[in-house]
Amino acid sequence: MLVGRADELRSLGEALERAGAGAPQALLVGGEAGVGKTRLVEEFAGRAERAGAVVAVGGCLELGAEGLPFAPFATALRALHRAFGDELARAAGGGEAELARLLPELAGAGGAEEPGDRHDVEAKARLFEHAARLLEKLAAERTVVLVLEDLHWSDRSTRELLGYLIRSLQGARVMLLGTYRSDDIHRRHPLRPFLAELERLRTVQRLDLARFSRQEVIGQLTAIRGAGPLPHLVDTIFQRSDGNPFFVEELTALLDCGGSPDALSESLRDLLLVRVEALPEATQRVLRTAAEAGSTVEFGLLLAVSGQGEEELIEALRPAVDVGILMPAAGGPGADSYRFRHALLREATGDDLLPGERSRLHRRYAEALAADPSLVRAEEHAARLASHWYAARDPARALPAALKAADEAGMRHAFAEQLALLRRAVELWDEVPEEQLRELPAARYAESYPLCRCADQPHLHFVDLLAEAAVAARLDDSHEQARTLTRRALELLDEEAEPERAAWFWLERQWQVVNSGGADGWAELGKAQELVADRPPSPVKADVLATAALWKMLHSPDPASIPLAESAVEQARLVGAAEVELHARITLATLRTHAADVARGIAELYELRDAADRSGAPTVIGRAHNNLASVLEMTGRSREAIEAARGGLAAARKQGLRDSIAFIGCNMVDAMISVGEWDAAEGDLARLRSYGAQARTRAFASLAAAWLALYRGDTDRAGELLAEAREEAGASQAEPQGAFRMVQIGARILMERGQYEEARVMLAEGLVKLPELGHESYLWQLLVSAAAAEGDARGLPGTAAGRDELLDRLERAAGQLDTPTPIWVAWQRYFVAELARARGRSEVALWEAAASALEPLERPHELGWVRYRWAEALLAGGAPGSVRERAARLLGQAHAAAEALGAAPLRDGVEQLAARARIPLAAPGDAAAPGPEDPAEALGLTARETDVLRLVTAGRSNRQIAEELFISPKTASVHVSNLMAKLGVSNRGEAAAVAHRMRLFESA
Q1: pLDDT tens-digit profile of 985-996?
Q2: Bond prior to 771 in cis (omega within 30° of 0)
Q3: Backbone angles phi, psi at 69, to 5 degrees
Q4: Can you give the pTM of this predicted structure?
Q5: What is the H or E stretch that residue 174 is in?
């Protein structure tokens, strides 16, 4: 019977109802040791199961931080496997190899390869994504409650997976419930920042269990004893327990055994040991032995460590079980297990051991596990063995055990735990005799690190250990530790004697610099290239060249990049580095499209996409699909890009490539914006931004959203999104594909705000790197945008200075760009027309040429602007009737496009031009529509305010306005303030910019 906790049970029940309705729930139950967290969860679990939910419970183990990752998830998933049977295997379809890292029973299903072959930067995110999708599938027909107990003992990988599930589960009938001991969470406890991070999420609910009140203690005593307690007994127990339910139980049990209330110790530890010390000595010895095993001890393991016979051990255990100190628990394969009724009991019992006694017990546990690994679950063996040998203070055995446990942690993508174990190995290295170090097997690497070419039997060297730890640190995003390990290795290495190994560490330094956002990594990559330049083919040489070619493609592509990529392909092929070869071929094909060999490059990318899918290598799959979609969009094949991206998204989802989903999706959104599917693109962006695991990916999503905001006329929102993109991009702002976009959006925003001088400085800085091979699409758009902004500003006071210089610079830049595809031809013609307009001579023939180039390409937004400017040029000199009819048709087409897209700036421009020209707007073939109202009236300006705005636009001061309109300067100031408020601007320059943009004071 559960006493109290009615409010908490109600909160849990309401969360279960919300989860059942398809809204994933996450709750954290905290409270001091003994306050009743487990009892509350047990009561709720029973109620949830009676309501039809499937409940799976897993508990964290104390040695989790030392290398037993995902322990609660493994236990909970095993419970789900029992509950769902084959249904779970079907739900895991396609992800068995990854999910086997959490649930080994899935290994081999569907022909999946052995876990641990893929240690790439997305490996952990891929595992987490598969876990999330598995839970969503299992919860499709019924509610699944996942309970993770004792999070204060959780390893970091468990916390990261829990956080991932909380953030990523969508529309699933899943409830995540965690418990933790709040009194253990000191200032530096690793759970503390995790809890603080979750508190910022509105989707997470925290329940803090308080101690019992006096009335609740009375209820608990009544439930325990079956009758109401005497008042003096209530006073004694409430005072001594301070309302802690566990201590209430212990005190009651002691009193029921004949203890005197006055004789009870003030020490909680002594209180807990009173009942233990009342047991037979043989039972006490077994309890002390069991206390050092961890949260749970298997019967077979305890039998081996205790040195007793089976019957003897059972007889020793029975008294502890009878009085409720030990409880049966589900254990290892083919054996029963035991756990202390409460962790406080185990801790008090273990604390009664002498230091030497404790280390000897750990040695016996280690020896038993080494002699018979089947005593515990296979996935737990290495970590528990390493923990016991370390606690036994035996470096010679602790070192190889730590290495073995680290290898298994890495195979499970638990890189935090792998790194912790490898750092322990580094710590133990000097304490192990040299002859034993020579017996350590050579490391197994999934990467290109070159093992020592020793004359004797290959074995692990200290530098090899540093290399493995550096990789784990990189994959764990522990940048500072990675730098420390790599620096130490380079100090130990003789670069002349071992150039390949040194090159590998410099390559690692490059990734560390890039991932930490400190620099672009080219200096480190250059050092690695120098070291392998004259060396024979090797995996590390292929890796260095492939990485250098990729760097050049992303940062400063030029004609020399192609031979570099070709060399990387050749080197990888010579040494059989299949994945490196595929990466290098993707880079090479992409560079070929950049170098105007478009047809060949795209054909190769299609072939490489299929080869990547066949390879099963996740990072290659994600990159092949992403580059194909990107190249198709940049070369104007936007519809094809959308279809390719959709295929890529399906492949990325199958592999659990969350970051690749975001990147491929961004390329799809770019293509959707190009073809005018803005509403759909906006919806996709809202979803994709939550997928980006890397800041760089989120930056590109923010840039795409900024484009849309700018196209729709929301300059303020575009500015916010641009600021987000810059913050997220870090050092990757230097990559041309992001840099040119940031310059284009930023400069346009500045010009919209009347900050023309700042915009020109930004544009000039952005054009410094011209030309950039392969980024012509971005460059043409930048040039068109800059020229259009200058054309809009022409005639505004104070904007003439610097215009001609910038326009000349834009024209020179355009002269350096090729036009091998129809879309680039269209951009070039569009630019020429805008350049002429910016110089004050908008020409009908140029606009007509631009329109004819755009019309076949499905670019409705750009075509709308070109038609609008074409009509403007036709009407500029007082057009005759036939020309006006043509202009009217163009305006109607542009207006229809603007309305369909939701492109407010284009729509406003068309309507204002039509108003000035007294042309009714109608789509082609429609009946004539009434002409738009006067633009000044549409803004709510009075006739006097319109006169004042005209003079403000001409650059007049308040005193000059007063003199010209025969009013006082104070009245002029009031009119200026009023019109600025109606225009939504903050200064006279912005007011003039609005008037100029809307053509308020130009004759038709």
Answers
A1: 778 888 888 887
A2: yes
A3: -75, 155
A4: 0.77
A5: strand 174-181
